[in-house]
Write a structure and sequence with these properties.
By secondary structure, this protein is of the alpha/beta class. The chain folds into three domains: 134 residues, GMP Synthetase, Chain A, domain 3; 123 residues, Beta-Lactamase (2-Layer Sandwich); 275 residues, Rossmann fold (3-Layer(aba) Sandwich). It contains 22 helices and 19 strands. Strand 8 and strand 9 form a beta hairpin. Helix 15 packs across helix 17, helix 16 runs antiparallel to helix 20 and helix 21 runs antiparallel to helix 22. The structure holds zinc ion. Zinc ion (ZN) binds next to loops. Zinc ion binds next to loops.
Amino acid sequence: MKENMLVLEMLLKNKMITRQNIAERSNEARRSGKSILDLLLKDRIVTQEKLVLIFHNEWGFELYDPHKDVLDPRVLPFFSKDQAKKNLVFPLHQEDEDQLTVLMADPTHEETLRNVKRIADKRLKILVAETDCIQGMIGKHYHQKYTNQESTDLLNPSESKETSPEPSIIAFVNDLIEEGVSQGASDIHVEAFPQKIRVRFRIDGVLKTVGQLNRETWKGAITRLKILGGCDIAEHRHPQDGAFSSIHEHRQIDVRLSIIPTIHGEKIVLRLLDQKKFLMSINELGFSNEQKQLLKEIMESPHGMLLVCGPTGSGKTTTLYSLLNGMDPRTQNIITIEDPVEFQMDDINQIQVNDKIGLNFANGLRAILRQDPNVIMVGEIRDEDTAETGIRAAITGHLVLSTIHTNNAVASINRLMDMKIPLYLLSAALRGVISQKLVKRLCPNCRKKEPASEAEKRLLGIADQDIELYYPVGCSLCHGTGYQGRIAVQEVLKITRRIREAISTGGDYETIRKVAIEEKFKPIEESLKHHLLLGNTSISQGLEILAFENEWHR
Ligand SMILES: [Zn+2]
């Protein structure tokens, strides 16, 4: 896309970016065909919210207000879905015959504006909105097929069914997966009942009904999916598994297919493994600059152990994959042992744990050590054997990354002590611990800002200050929930000399934590407070973290 120099100049003028920020990205922009502005947004140097404000303050464009500016679906056909996506434009309503109100992400981009005018062929009234907001509206309103919850209409792949049934089923299955990916679903369920065939998406951990199918489409889809997944299409009575890949907006989506026979017919579950989700750069994982610096220092060490802890489903594996992705597999021998291998990485040797044949973390790890590795990733430390083998690998010249199921960084150290790891080994091996939790992200489209209550301020330990926090509201973009997606909050504990001493003398939780705080360790609630003040999440989402951490303070 052609660079919008106007916006870059304006960002410079407002001191939101530096000339160096631009210079650093010019090569990548040329290579990738993306604009420098896109790259600045991707690296979060500029946020979408601030960009929108620049358009408002500097050019006087009105901001989109979902409560005031309502959608009239009759104007949707002014743009096709592709045109809307390509130009990041969304038609909202028509006040009179000649004028069309549209949302745009960058109304100062000349080429885009020309395109939009040409396609609409009307006078435009432009409201600015964040890219995510516009993409969300396009995804929702240009795909009524699957998103109309109350609708009793049966989904039909297409009208041309009689003439050529095959292409329409293929298109239907592609659409279904694409819709799941664009809504951020982790799983797609297609279930048969006597009266209906239901389609549900699991989004942010919650199943949501998105539509119904007629029997013919359902049967066609099962056959198509079985072919894609390499299953037996004639088999209807036994459970079957399969896997295939599909490309969605230039990135690979690995799909795991599971089919089980229920009394009303075969139930399909598609698990969508989105490469983008697993390979987020460290910049996107929600670490603060300070935390990134600590991580860099930890990872610079050629040997030792780095642990990621947190509850199940807190994105520990994503963090590990992202750390591995930052390494150079051409000069290093990187081997993983995982259960399961969630994402296949280029140039990295990945081993799948297999209990049936006795291949577990501990003996797999011992075999890896005979393969001259530099970096080893062990999916999870669950038992003493794995813990000790991993620790020994870490002090004999290997960098070992793993996860452990504990509640916070310091508790991981005590867990390893409980696993009877000799203290001298543990203190020598451990380089750092990341603790991570996921909280729901406030919908940026509808969140509201209000003064915090006394109780909330007390909870945050800032009773004497007047602060404002953000609260969920609910709009069409977030399906009335007030939240969209999740963000990670973290703490990064770097093992310093003093902490190492505390470990080697068998310090308990309180002792090690006290030393860590003296060594400038920032517990997870600091990171949470940062996100709360930025409006990334709400205090109700952070309650569990705050309550838990406060307990330890007393
Ligand atoms: Zn919302």
